[in-house]
Structures are given as C-alpha cells and as structure tokens.
Amino acid sequence: MSALATILRRRPARLALVSVLGLGVLFGGAAAANAAMGQVRTQESPLTVRSGPGTGYAAVGTVAKGASLTISCRTKGTRVSGPYGATDVWNKVGDGRYVSDAFTTSTEKAPQCSSTQLRTVQLVAFKGARACSSDERGYANGRVPASARCALYGDKGESLRPRAAAAFNALSMAYERENGRALCVTDSYRSLEEQVAVKAKRGKWAAKPGTSEHGLGKAVDLCGGVGTFGSDAYRWMKANGPKFGWVHPDWAEPGGKLPEPWHWEYRG
Ligand SMILES: [Zn+2]
C-alpha cells in the first residue's frame, strides 16, 4: 500500500480513480479488466436498460436521452435497430445492466467483455430460468438426489443441479429465440450406475466412474449440430455459453487430450 499512498500524494486529482485501481489489485487483479472504460451518450428517451445483452433479458431500468454512461466493456447480443443502424453490440453499464449500442454514440470505445465480466448476468431475471430447488449442497459424484436437481428446458428426463439447470435453461431459451428450437441434449446428470454403464460402452471416451463432471450434475453433452467443431451451432455456443456460465473445457478443445465438441460444463 505504500506505493499507492505515494501515488495518491503525487496525483491528488486522480485520487478516486487510483483508489478504484488499488482495490482491484487487492481483490485479485480485477482492475486490469476494468481499467479501460468507455463513455456513451444515449440518443433515445428513455432507453431501456436490460439485465443481460439482449432484448430477451428483463428490463431493469431506463436512462434519459443525453445521459452519459460509463461502459466497462462491450459484448455481442440480440441484433437491434436504432438511430445508428442495426448492431448486435451491447454495452455493459453496471452489474447486470446492459444497453444496446444502436441507441448510443461512443466517445471512447470500451474493450470486449471477458467471460468473468459477463458472469454477472442476473440469471434469475430470465423468464423460466428460476431454479426449481435451492438444494445446492455438495453430494458425492453420481449420488445427487432428484430433489437437488432441476429439469432441463425442452428435454424430458434430463436434469442438472439447480443453478446449472437455471443457467442452461436460460441459454437454451436464448438459443431458441435465435434458431427456432431449444438446445438438444444427449446427456446431462449421470448417476454412478449410469457412469459405470457408459464407461463399459464408450471406453476411453468416458470418464472413470465417480469422476465425471456429469456425476456432479454440471455437465451436458449436446446434439443438434453442437457435436461438430466449427458448425453454426457450435460457434453459437462458444460465443454465448460463457455469458450464462457454460464453457467448453480446454481438454475438450480440438487440441485438447479428448476433443469433444459436444461436452459443456457449468462454471458459473
Ligand atoms: Zn460429456
């Protein structure tokens, strides 16, 4: 802190900014991601602020025409038409607060949002994305009771842990709005017995029973095109999954030890 104190003494005019950066360093380097900010001026009155980067997210407020907003980062979402043409760019103006770039003029361009910055999307704001259970207790792999799992949107019989399911359902609904159908699920939670059966059938393509992410109820195997690297559906998942906490793990990437385009995990 002594270095920071020195800076504060030398640069009194920047005190507020330096304090924020100092806190960022203390709390795990968040400052690096947030240091570059942009400014936008709204051109519509009032402009709706949404909980995520798209028109499918809940409206969480409005801002008056001409207001100056500080944006921490930009990301892609629903394509919107406004006074400045059509764009799929959305500006993050706070935690769980986004405005479409179609209604704003930028004086400074903010950087692309990192997956960490996007993770603040408020999942409960999605229609139908409420968790069916609040039981998030730790259970042994493959031993998660039905009461601690929630059904997946559009797929009878498939289930995940409550938060993972809520996030997945929101993601699946977003996919459906853009592509006309929900995400197709081959496999989700797997009990220990099911993991043993899958191992016997698939050999090296399945995890050792009792170690699979599927046994924790936080992984899905997807169909409907996602099972092919580079397909439209796969690229949609790569672009949008992280906004909902769903990522494609490194080991399953094309250069990973077990390339599996269909396997996705919840890290929210
Ligand atoms: Zn899998």
Automatic annotation (TrEMBL):
Pfam families: VanY (PF02557). CDD domains: Peptidase_M15 (cd14814). Transmembrane segments: none annotated. GO terms for molecular function: peptidase activity. InterPro entries: DD-CPase-like, VanY-like_core_dom, Zn_M74/Hedgehog-like. Residues 158-268 form the D-alanyl-D-alanine carboxypeptidase-like core domain. One of its GO terms (biological process) is proteolysis. This is Peptidase M15. It comes from Knoellia koreensis.
